[in-house]
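Lab notes, practical 5.
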Amino acid sequence: MPSIAPDWDLKPKVQKIGPEVEKLRPVLVQLQPEKWTAAGAPVAYEKQYKDCLTAIGYVQSTAGRLAEQPAKLSLAVETLVRLESLVQMASSVSQAVRRYQNPAIADLLDGEISAAGASRDWLRQHVSDLSILREKELFVAEQEAQKCRAQTLHQGSRK
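Output from the prediction step:
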């Protein structure tokens, strides 16, 4: 069964996530999605571009809350989902940049996407470990509840 590191060990790992995704912003703000559309790109790329900028803040917000409670499964899952979504959207935007703006800028964006996702593997493992641990705790609690119910029923039948 996996064990979870203490909060003081987890917190620095979680705190890296916000600065990692922030590195995407300077590259993204240099992009010109309105020119892509003029060049024939689907309008959806403009929306993905805007969503990427917004998603950076969402990842930072959830990672900040997770840093305060690193053993909270729901926050770990939310942070992972938001990070995965950001990386996926940014990768799509990178394809648009490569095709409709400048391949060299796309390469730069890809490098920052990789850096932004640096904590992804650790976060995936953390979510997995937390899930396994919580399932085990739930199983033990359910067994104890069954024992208590059986004792209560047994005591009630002796009266």
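Observations recorded by the TA: The mean pLDDT is 91. The two ends are 42 Å apart (CA to CA).
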